[in-house]
């Protein structure tokens, strides 16, 4: 099964944060912060058809998004998030 985002929506897959600090301390799962970096899995048609927006983001980009943005869904064992383009703060290059 696959998801196709509608309108100006984007589907992302969160990138898990490191489980160790730089000093080597292992963090338990309860102490880890929710990741705010993700990889773009799919882009909606309104974004692809808009000349200004289509160059801003594409599938495979790594992005930083708003902390409480989007709707989380679980599909085929994967946890994905659907959010609006405006909830994406930056593309990591």
TrEMBL record:
Keywords: Chaperone, Cytoplasm. GO terms for cellular component: cytoplasm. GO terms for molecular function: ATP binding; metal ion binding; protein folding chaperone; protein-folding chaperone binding; unfolded protein binding. Together with the chaperonin GroEL, plays an essential role in assisting protein folding. The GroEL-GroES system forms a nano-cage that allows encapsulation of the non-native substrate proteins and provides a physical environment optimized to promote and accelerate protein folding. GroES binds to the apical surface of the GroEL ring, thereby capping the opening of the GroEL channel. Heptamer of 7 subunits arranged in a ring. Interacts with the chaperonin GroEL. Belongs to the GroES chaperonin family. This is Co-chaperonin GroES. It comes from Soehngenia longivitae. The lineage of its organism: Bacteria, Bacillati, Bacillota, Tissierellia, Tissierellales. The gene is groES.
């Amino acid at each position: 099964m696959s998801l196709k985002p509608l309108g100006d929506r984007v589907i992302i897959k969160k990138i898990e944060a490191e489980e160790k600090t730089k000093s080597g301390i292992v963090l338990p799962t309860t102490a880890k912060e929710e990741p705010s970096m993700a990889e773009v899995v799919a882009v909606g048609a309104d974004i692809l058809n808009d000349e200004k927006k289509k160059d801003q983001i594409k599938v495979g980009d790594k992005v930083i998004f708003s902390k409480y943005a989007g709707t989380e869904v679980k599909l085929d064992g994967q946890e994905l998030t659907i959010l609006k383009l405006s909830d994406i703060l930056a593309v990591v290059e």
